[in-house]
Amino acid sequence: MFHHVVSFRRSLVLILCTILFLETQADSDICKICTCYSLTTSVNCANRNLQSIPQPIPTNVEYLRLGNNNIATIKEGAFTGLSNLKELYLSYNKISRIEKEMFQGLHNLEKLVLGTNNIATIKEGAFTGLSNLNYLVLGANNIATIKEGAFTGLSNLNYLYLSYNKISRIEKEMFQGLHNLEKL
Q: How far is it, in rounded angstroms, from Cα 126 to Cα 99?
């Protein structure tokens, strides 16, 4: 009986080591370009002169910094599988538009920083599915138009930063549903 327990424990340790090794191998690609911290729950890709979001991003990432790069567009599905992501920094890039459902699947995202880009329009449904988002920075862009329904579903949003844009008109329904908004 004792032999079976020892054998089981050895097998369990071997399986766990294999899983950790495979996860490290999968994460190593992004960690060659970016700096990975604490078993890749935090990835810093800032100031890397990136033109696109590096892939694959480990699914256990909670904090992702992509600021100060040359990212102009975000491809569909760039954030697929990142349901653990809590904070996403995309400031100081060249992003020109936010497409509908661009951040789909980021159910746990709490903080999204898109300041100092070239965003001109925020389309309806741009932030669909970000029900836990409480901090959104869109300042220092070229935003002139915010479509009705752009902020739909952001019921937990506390902080919305829109300063230093070209907004000349605010529609009556623009902020509908933002019941927890404290700072604008």
A: 6
Alpha-carbon 120 to chain mean position: 20
pLDDT tens, residue by residue, 53-108: 999 999 999 999 999 999 999 988 899 999 999 999 999 999 998 888 889 899 99
Residues contacting 101, CB < 8 A, separation 6+: 125, 126, 128, 129
Predicted structure pTM score: 0.84
User: Quick one: which of 156, 60, 177, 146 has its CA closest to 112?
Assistant: 156
CB under 8 Å, gap of 24 or more: what pairs does 40-48 form? 41/84, 45/69, 46/89
Q: How many CB atoms lie within 10 A of CB 112?
A: 22
Domains and CATH numbers, the chain: 30-183 (3.80.10.10)
Rg (CA), the chain: 20
Nearest C-alpha neighbor of 29 from the set 43, 15, 49: 43
Q: Which H or E run contains 23?
A: helix 2-33
Q: Distance (Å, rounded) from C-alpha 106 to C-alpha 95?
A: 19
